[in-house]
Structure formats: structure tokens, C-alpha cells
Amino acid sequence: MQQTLVVARDGDTAKIAGVMSYDLQVWSIRPLQQNAFRHPEMWQKHPASWALERKNWQIVVSSSDRVEAEDIPDEINRLLPGIEWQTNLNLEGEATKEAFRLVQSSASDIARFSHGIVLDQQDGSIRLPSGVKRFLSPRSREPFDVIAMSWWLLDSPIESRQGREQFIGLLERLMPEVLPKRYGLYEPPKNVYAETGKDHFLRFWDENLHDTIVWYPHRPVVSVYAGFPSPLGAHTLGFRTNRLSIEIEKDALSQPGWSIAMQRLWKETSRLIRPIYGDVRVFSNYEWMGATVSGGQEHPVKSWWWTGIPESLGIAVVIGETYQKLWPNFVAAANVSDELAFVSMDDWNTKDDLVDKIGTAPLEQVQFAQRFGSVMTTQEFREYMAEKKAGKIPDRRVYPTGWPFGVPFTT
Question: Are residues 267 and 154 in the same domain?
């Protein structure tokens, strides 16, 4: 008995009742545009969809919907950075081989045009169309710039094993390139993450938490540093905090999805690790030296020696509750969520500084340049430390007048 095909108009799309439905999704960096279709003249435009109708079947393609980062499946995030849109394709009716071929090729065309991934909702399979890749740029042979994300932390969740597990999980989801390719205590690091696995790396981190771990990430991430001094806070040489930094090739900003992915990493990492202060800066003059980089500019805050808010701010800043109470102008300009305040340039591909947008921090909270500041090179800092330990030079421990963390050093 031949089934009757019923075509009903519901709102702005045509729907076929009764026989079957085959569903695909495209998760993409850009939204759907009509010129994504190989033969746009075949498709009828409705206010919120496109439809291709035949006698016994039809394909309906919805307009793209913007998605929240937390709603993107992990397996999608791992394949492409910066996913922001979802497009649904529905094949309905007595589908023929032509219909199946057309809905599959249409999904691939949309994914290729929008830089996305096709998810088959029937079996959960995922495919990347040809030409769609996570990262395309070859390694630079010339000096290059990096986007440097840095955080300074007290009483942070990342100090615990559970917090570090959550951090690794966040990296797996948002930017697996940050995960170590190799790791160890010495150059070159002997442990290969693909062979030892996550559990071994976490145990290694537990056992060497207060040591300097050599951490080789994957391009376009060029370096990762995690410092956990013991004890925290006041020390004979100054005030120490935990510090985390991630540096990524700035050219990645021009790759599809990477600008969004980097800003998501910045915000989600901040929410997890709860910094007292963090910023994002552009540093220049890095060069590849084998598996690592050399050269480059340095942050005005030296390593874990927190000495106050830098006078220049970079392209993004996050502050915790302590500094929010002391810097109301920042909070007034900020996006405040989860007890953290964020201010950022809309476009990280800039040479501007947030100081031009919101002004400097209150003077009583600003770092003194002579205290481990940008006037000291790494070598000068080492020499200063050696001379200080030997008692050959007077004390240079100078902290802002409004220092909010108790006694900054011990005698």
C-alpha cells in the first residue's frame, strides 16, 4: 500500500509528515549564508530557513543559531576551535538515494563554507569536510609575536589535585594544544604525553608541584609555565604567588576560530583558577629554536614575585575581589561574573593598551618600576638576587603604599 505524503506549512518552513526524518547538524565558526549552497537557485528562502522540495521528500536547512560555549559537545571542541554556530538539516519524506546524497553534500558544503563540522544525529558520527582543518599556518622562520596570558594566584583551586584535573579537562575541551607534548624536570623532557597519558602527567605534577616543570606544548601554543612556590606570600626576598602563563603565536588570531578560542581559554581558565590579577599582552621578537622558543619581551612582573599592578595593562585584564575593592573605575568598566572582573579589547590583534581605555590602576596599587620591574633584564634580576642573598647590596624591596596582602616579606 502506497503511503500518502502530506505537506504542511508551519510558520515559515515546509514539513512532510509520515514517512521518515534524517537529521544532520553543522557546528561552525561562521553562520550559514545562502552562497554556501553549491546550487543556491535550487533552494527556496524562508524567513528562518531554506528548503529544497521534491515530490516525495524535502530538505529543510535552518538558519544558524548562536550557541553558548558550554553547550558545544567536547568532541566538537576538540576538532575545531571557536565554534559559535549550529545549523540543522532535516531530510523528510520518502527519501531516495538522490535525497541522501544531496543532504550529505549540502551539509559538507555548509561546513566547508562556514568552517565547521558535520554531526550525524542518527549514529553520532562526526566528519570534517576536506579543506577544513584546526590550524593551517606553517611555523615561522622569522621573529614573531605571541599572545601572552598570565595569572597570579593565592588560595587557588589549581593548588589541589582536583583543581589540576579540572584544569587539564578544561584544556582538553577548549585548547588541547596547551597540553604537553613532552614533559619532565630537565631539557629535553623525557615523558611523552601520548604514551604516558593524563594520569601519569597528573601524578608527575603532584610529585613535582614546587619544582619547575619543563612543558612542551603543541603549536600554535609556544610555552606553558606553572609555578607553585612554597611557602606562598611573604618571603625573605619578597612576596610570592602561584603563577600560570600560556603563550600562543599571535598569527593564530588570523586562523578561523582561534580568536574566539583564545578569549574563551582566557576567561574559563580565570574562572577556574581564581587569580588576584591576570592580564593578556602582546610580546615581540620570539624565534623558534628547535622545539622551544627564545628571545622575546618580558612581563613587567617577574615570575611569581608579585609587586603590584603593572603601570601598563596589555589588551585584557582580570582582577579578583581584593583589587575590585581598591579599583572601582576598573569594576565600572568591567564585565563582572563569578566574582571576577574582566576588561578586554574587543580585538586582540592590536597594539593599543587598556590604559587608553580605562586609565591606570590607583597609584597606591601600581608596581614600582625599580622593584623587579621592566627596568631589570632577566640577567640583572639573577645578579640582583645573588648579591642580595650574599648581603652585598642594600634592600630594594619596595612595594606600593596601598599593598593589600599583609606583610610583603619576612626578615
Answer: yes
Q: Which domain holds residue 64?
A: 6-127
- Does residue 410 sit within a domain? no
The grid coordinates of residue 22 equal 534524517
Nearest CA-CA partner of 354 in 323, 318, 320, 321? 318
What is the C-alpha separation between 120 and 56, in angstroms, rounded? Answer: 22
User: Does the residue 158 lie in any domain?
Assistant: yes
Query: 334: number of CA atoms within 13 Å, CB side?
Result: 23
Phi, psi of 269 (to 5 degrees): -65, -45
Q: Indicate the number of domains in the chain.
A: 2
What grid cell was written down for 235?
A: 618571603
On the question of a cis peptide bond just before residue 220, with omega within 30 degrees of 0, the verdict is yes
How far CA 200 is from CA of 181, 184, 207, in Å, comes to 13, 11, 11
Backbone angles phi, psi at 111, to 5 degrees: -65, -40
Asked whether the beta carbons of 191 and 182 are under 8 A apart, the reply is yes
Q: What's the CA gap between 357 and 343, in Å, rounded?
A: 10
Let me know if residue 58 belongs to a domain. yes
pLDDT tens figures, 244-259 = 999 999 999 999 999 9
Chain-wide mean pLDDT for the chain? Answer: 89
Cell of 367: 608596581
Reduced to 3 states, what is the DSSP secondary structure of residue 279? Answer: strand
Q: Kindly state whether residues 95 and 148 are assigned to the same domain.
A: no
- Beta carbons within 8 Å of 169's beta carbon, 6+ residues apart: none
Does residue 261 contact residue 144 with C-beta atoms inside 8 Å?
no
Q: Do 156 and 75 share a structural domain?
A: no
Spans of the chain, pLDDT less than 70: 1-20, 369-377, 391-397
Cα–Cα dist 98/19, whole Å:
16
Does one domain contain both 229 and 122? no
Extract the runs of DSSP E, i.e. beta strands, from 121-235. Answer: 126-127, 144-153, 182-184, 191-192, 214-216, 221-227, 233-235
Helices 193-207 + 161-174 axis angle, to 10:
150
Cell of 266: 582566557
Domain boundary among 93, 127, 161: 127
